[in-house]
Amino acid sequence: MKVVQFTVPVVYQGSICVQEDILPSFYSNYHRHKEIQLTYILKGRGTFMIGNFTHSFEEDEIYIVDADEPHMFKTGEDIKDGIHAIHIFFDYEHFKSFLDFPEFDDVKYFLEHINVSKKLDAEHAVALKDKFVQINTSAGIDRLLSFVKLINFLSKKVDQWTSLYTGIPQKKFSDAEGLRINEIFQYTFQHFGDKISLEDIAAVAHMTPHAFCKYFKKHTRKTYVTFLNEIRIERACKMLIDESSESVSNIAFKTGFNNVVNFNRVFKKITKHSPSEYVQEHRMRD
Q: Model-level pTM?
């Protein structure tokens, strides 16, 4: 049986480590690492989970994951032909002495003020695809210089980044707690379309329902019902766009809601739109 680690070691390749994933799916366990991570999604889509925050991800988006920030990319259920991404990892503490020259002031300031994880939308990120590919295919000093040029470019786009602030000020919980939270998340992603009772999810965490409620709220700053509804509505949003022939009532039942009225209420609370308004707004953007 494969051992799931919460704190994942990154294979050493020098100052900059690069990993290209061409796989059936993304690594979908909730995990962290001490390095800052830059990810370009070349192919695939799904749900990005960071801290207690869930967000849909699409092709040609860039993500910055801050050091020690727990996260995972969950491949969408409709992805049948695999995923492709380039991940760049670096430990800023080992890297910052290289940036003491005044010419690197903008790069150094950007890296020192990441603070929270961020996303760059496809309309701004696609111009950087070749830079990620170049870093992936180069080595040694060429890779290092290409990376510095990339960060310098990113530092000029600060107004185009979307903050993925999770609301959780303390990222340093133990590996044991991280593994337990991963089990909770994995069960939720696998069963969100079913009726999940408090007793069911508490049993996954090996806790009493009362202890589980306190534990989950402490580590995520939200109730489990709120988290579950966010997962369900995030999936419903995809279905509304991708499966336009599906009725709202069918989507509601497929995502775990027992009636349409409750679905519409929760949908509007989370997205600030009704399902029909959400579809209309998405079509206008396209």
A: 0.81
Q: Tell me: do 64 and 121 sit in the same domain.
A: yes
Per DSSP, the residues of 88-140 read: EEE-HHHHGGGG-SGGGHHHHHHHHT--S-EEE-HHHHGGGHHHHHHHHH--H
Tally of domains within the chain: 2
Q: In 134-143, which positions are buried (b, 16+ CB within 10 angstroms) versus exposed (e)?
A: ebbebeeeeb
Asked whether residue 201 is assigned to any structural domain, the reply reads yes
227 C-beta neighbours (distance < 10 Å), count: 20
- 178 within domain boundaries: no
Band (166; pLDDT cuts 50, 70, 90): low
The answer to whether the CB of 55 falls within 8 A of the CB of 41 is no
One domain, residues 196 and 235? yes
* Per-residue pLDDT, 155: 86
For 118, residues 6+ apart whose C-beta sits below 8 A from its C-beta are: 63, 64, 161, 162, 163, 164
Of the three residues 142, 163, 184, the one that is the final residue of a domain is 163
Q: Which residues contact 58 (CB under 8 A, 6 or more apart)?
A: 41, 45, 122
Q: How many helices (H) and strands (E) does the chain have?
A: 12, 9
Conformation bin of residue 144: beta by default, left when phi > 0, alpha when psi is -120 to 50:
alpha
Give the residue numbers spanning the domain of 206: 192-285
Name the residue with higher pLDDT: 283 or 28. 28
Q: At 196, which CATH number?
A: 1.10.10.60
Residue 70, helix vs strand vs coil: coil
Q: Please report whether residue 204 resides in a domain.
A: yes
**67 domain residue, yes or no:** yes
Sequence-separated (6 or more) residues with CB below 8 Å from residue 285 = none
